[in-house]
Amino acid sequence: MIEGSIVAIVTPMLANGEIDYPAFDRLIEWHIASGTDAIVVVGTTGESPTLSEQEHCALVRHCVEKVAKRIPVIAGTGSNSTREAIFFTQAAREYGADACLLVVPYYNKPSQEGLYQHFKAVAEAVDIPQILYNVPSRTGIDLLPSTVSRLADIPNIVGIKEASGSMERCRELLRTCADRISIYGGDDATALELMLAGGKGNISVTGNLVPQQMHDLCRLALQGDAEAAARVNAPLEMLHDKLFVEGNPVPVKWAMAKLGLIQASLRLPLVELSPGFHSTLLEAMRKAGLSV
Questions:
Q1: Helices 188-197 & 226-233 angle (0-180, nearest 10)
Q2: Number of domains, the chain
Q3: Which of 173, 212, 243, 290 is most deeply buried (CB count within 10 A of its CB)?
């Protein structure tokens, strides 16, 4: 079982928009040294919507090879096309990923039965552990707990990243599904509460900036040490919030560039963080103990 602080790693890019593999390798080594418990590659934070099929597959393969089994690698393989999701999931399995993260199909807004049949088809087609990913604010459709409960009976569906930001939703999933699948936070601001309630970890944007702190936070929360976990979380609370002043990963890539971790480069239609948010994000970074 994958537990703890799981970073939704950014995809570093050069000024011309090409993938910066040397910077990507440095981030992987930094995360492993800092205690990050697992890496999600080519997720939303990795700008998967603007990666070509070839780039997507190459990044998964490269990440798996670079990590070399030191920590688990979870490949983002979701799509609003079931056939494409199967293709990416099969490729991730062939490259040696430890699990796959499959987002709810976006834009075409399937029914709950359509969602069930989509995830069931991928799970039956590819024998690899699969984690569902519910993020209604991006997909336009909500994967309801009743549907998750049906999917939890499929053997290789092993978890869900719940990124609705609703603790009521998380508690319902814990009540109905936690005996069959792992419930992961997908919202840094509520991750501590979720883990203390029985969640198994957090798939984090904040972890791109403070991997050691996020590892410590998750470890303490999973041990049930609420007081110590809250002390670690307190300086990060503003950062959890301000990393979403614009669409992810715009703020986190700007912050990482300020720390010299990557170049400040995104692919259109994303553009650099609006100047009006710079001072606010810098303040949040300082409160989190980062030198900027």
A1: 180
A2: 1
A3: 243
Domain that holds residue 98: 4-229
CATH code at position 212: 3.20.20.70
Backbone angles phi, psi at 162, to 5 degrees: -100, 105
- Which active-site residues does the annotation give? 133, 161
pTM: 0.96
What is d(CA 270, CA 249) in angstroms, rounded to the nearest whole number?
9
Query: Tens digit of pLDDT for each residue in 225-261?
Result: 999 999 999 999 999 999 999 999 999 999 999 999 9
> How does pLDDT run across 198-232, given as a tens digit for each residue?
999 999 999 999 999 999 999 999 999 999 999 99
In a domain, 113, yes or no: yes
What is the distance between the alpha carbons of residues 169 and 153, in angstroms, rounded to a whole number?
19
**Total H helices, total E strands in the chain:** 13, 8
